Amino acid sequence: MEIRNNYQVDYCFILPNNLRNQLAKPYGILFINDHKLFNFLGARGSSRIITVGDVVTRTLLSHNIIPFLPIIDGKTKRKIEVGEEIISERVVNEAGLIRLSAILKIERLLKSETSRGKVLYVEGEEDLLVIPAVIYGRNGDIVLYGQPNAGVVALVIDNFMRKRVLEIFTKFKVVRCDPKSE
What we know:
Layout: E1 11-14, H1 17-23, E2 29-31, H2 34-43, E3 49-52, H3 54-62, E4 69-72, E5 75-76, E6 79-80, E7 87-93, E8 97-99, H4 100-111, E9 119-124, H5 130-136, E10 142-147, E11 151-156, H6 159-169, E12 173-176
Parallel strand pairs: 3-4, 3-10, 4-9, 7-9
Antiparallel strand pairs: 1-8, 1-12, 2-11, 5-6, 10-11
């Protein structure tokens, strides 16, 4: 899927209410134990890891595992926590939607080897950015995201998973966004 923005207008892809319950379910392997998660990651060898969320990112970093692309918003369960991570890139993305500018930034970071380890800080909410991470990640990449009050979900990107995520994403409503500063 290629998304172009020839007019430099930001669009918002809004999550419809009828998809909220569907997206609340884990879309990969749910790990409730860090030890099993680290064994899984070790078995995957050289796969690139994309983390979406502060807790999962901090957990990997505390075990000296540096994600290819960590995506954080500085909040855990809506409580603001200022982390010590070095912020390399910033993007605006409000709750309940995905901004086109966020999609394009994730696409650029995932396509560039020089982006390895850069932290993408989201002013707003990062939860739905799992979607562009799956769409633009490579086959074999692992997307890790937190499942509230449950654990960590590991989603291995392949053509089937990408197609499944694209089917969900096409149900989002597209509107022109209010401009926000980045």
